[in-house]
Amino acid sequence: MKFIIKKTGSLIITLVIISFLSFLAFSLIPGDAAVASLGMDATEADINALREELGLNRPVHVQYADWLLSALQGDFGVSTQYHLPVSELVVKRLPATITLAVYSMVIIILVSFPAGLLGTRKPNGAMDTVMTVLSQVGMAVPQFFLGILLTFFFGIVLDWFTVGGYVGVQENPAGFFRFLVLPAVAVAVPKCATMTRYIRNAVVAQKKQDYVRTARGKGNSEKRVLLQHVLVNVMMPVVTMLAMMAADVLAGSIVVEQVFNIPGLGRLLITSISNRDYPVVQAIVVYMACAVVIMNTLADIAYQKLDPRVR
Amino acid sequence: MKKRINYNLIIGYTLIFLVLLLALVGLFYTPYPANEMNVLEKNQAPSLSHFFGTDQFGRDIFSRVMEGASTSFLIAVCVVLVGAGIGTLAGAVTAYFGGWLDAVLMRVNDVMAAFPSVLLAICFVAVIGPGTYNLICALGIVFIPSFTRVVRSEVLVQKELDYVRNAKLMGAGNLRILVFHILPNIRPVLKTSLLVGFQNAVLSEAGMSYLGLGVTQPDPSLGRMLSEAQGYLWNAPWYALAPGLTILALTLGLGLVTSDKA
Questions:
Q1: Are B116 and A274 in contact (CB < 8 Å)?
Q2: From A291, which residue of chain B is nearest by alpha-carbon distance?
Q3: Does A297 touch chain B (CB under 8 A)?
Q4: Does the N-terminal or the C-terminal CB of chain B have fewer CB atoms within 10 Å?
Q5: A175 lies in the same domain as A289
Q6: Does the beta carbon of A282 lie under 8 angstroms from any beta carbon of chain B?
């Protein structure tokens, strides 16, 4: 319990530091929100008036405190490109990104465990070699190239889905959930490959330990040794890896959303960067940072719960 | 014992060599000028005069792949040099001297390492703007923590060993011990992480250029070409395959070589 409180404390401190740094960085860029929303040909007086109105000529730390207070109440300001509240924009994009991330994590877990164990019965045997080659290729392929290949085969050659035919979850839930499967595969494959390799190496290393020999000597079946003895010991680093993967999946979805033309957080981030819509960029950066830091903290806590030695 | 042929290394080095050859030749010679447009030869299929066909402006895709490969190589090398240079320095100094600097830098390092590199690089580019040099800066900074961590943990082990104590007794200064005694001993580990870093740098560069946050128009970059090719998948699938397979060959080659080292 004390551990959890301590972790939560450092979580909050980390988040405050990250949000302040990103706020500072964005306030240092030449051309602030006033210039961005009025355009190039606005007069100096107009810009100054808007700056006054938006409070942009106050010291940075005062602006930050102000931003933080409203952010905590869910108000991230107004987008300069859409002229809509940022929080409204972000909430609208959330379902696609979250569904994509959850799908990908499910695929990673469902595929990498069986695939990782497949070759461990006979290390360096034929099956193991095949799995190694597959995971090497999987690790090397860029997610967006994989996305393009999937679009080509399933969208154009086989015509199983409409290219770029994303539908919102409200309009057509079935279509929404079906469309996101392929993007999730594109996000998941490189991560699956890494995870498979990791599990394979961990299991092979554990099998050389004395306790495995003891368990076999006591007459346990090979399956029981694997499931009840080896896997339990492999689980702890694997859980930590999975939490780190969750962050990678988030980053991967930014790129893959672009490939499949999915209006998620990643696409919003990219368009906002090219349109210099800094309130939106700031909000999404802080939002993603939160997600990553929270996932890492959860992993730390899970690790501590799973491993009696750390307790 | 019979010596086994190491296929991983052979295939890996062959793939890297092929792409490197393409990139090196691309620096000096391309069959056509990479940015020359030719309206008469738009969207052509692969043929003898255009190995990979032509794009929507009639530019020769093979020439563009060659130049794109050299751009990608150059950026990745610079990124790894920046990241490894600063990272090694920071890791070695903090581990060797310890103290409050170590504590502060490692905290910063942990926070940065927790973020996926693409996400961090996007944040940096959002602040400093796209472009080749900005991309090198952004990715270079993003790659520092991984090197710092590796070097730090190695130096922590090495500095307790007898040969360091011996060197100290012989009157060697701290700097001398770090550079001439410890650094050569961590070279194998550093070499592996350089290769892994290089693979990540190639992937990140391609990803950033694909998103339009890296190399700017009209210069060819493998990532950018892929995003342009996407619109022509229906009638010109080879346009996407050419840059995509080039990236894949390079990253797969690097992966095979590093997996053998690890």
A1: no
A2: B115
A3: no
A4: N
A5: yes
A6: no
Low-confidence ranges of chain A (pLDDT < 70): 29-42, 51, 53-57, 164-165, 310-311
Task: Tell me the Cα Rg of chain B.
Answer: 22
DSSP B40-77: GGTTPPP-SSSTT-B-TT--BHHHHHHHHHHHHHHHHH
∠ CA A206-B147-A295, rounded to 5°:
65
B252 lies within 8 A of chain A by CB: yes
pLDDT of A38 reads 64
pLDDT in tens, B51-68: 777 777 777 788 888 888
Domain that holds residue A38: 2-72
**Whether residues A60 and A129 fall in one domain:** no
**pTM score, two decimals?**
0.84
Q: For chain A, first and last CA: distance in Å? A: 10
Question: What's the sign of the alpha-carbon dihedral B66, B72, B76, B78?
Answer: positive
Question: Is the Cβ of B141 closer than 8 Å to some Cβ of chain A?
Answer: no
pLDDT given at position A292: 83
Domains: count for chain A? 2
| Chain A positions in Cβ-Cβ contact with residue B230 (cut-off 8 Å) | 148, 151, 259
B19 chain-A contacts, CB cut-off 8 A: none
Concatenate the DSSP letters of all residues of A98-118 into one string.
Answer: HHHHHHHHHHHHHHHHHHHHH
Classified as helix, coil or strand, A24 is: helix
Note the pLDDT tens digit of each residue in B105-154: 887 887 777 777 888 888 888 888 778 888 899 899 889 988 998 898 88
Residues 174-233 of A with CB under 8 A from B: none
| B259 Cβ under 8 Å from any chain A Cβ | yes
Q: What is the pLDDT of residue A54?
A: 67
Q: Which residues, at least 6 apart from B195, have a Cβ–Cβ distance to it below 8 Å?
A: B254, B257, B258, B261
Based on the fold, state whether residues A247 and A121 are members of the same structural domain: yes
Dump pLDDT digits (tens) for B168-203.
Answer: 888 888 888 888 888 888 888 888 889 889 998 999
* Chain B interface includes A133 (CB < 8 A): no
Has residue A67 been placed in a domain?
yes
Same domain for A60 and A143: no
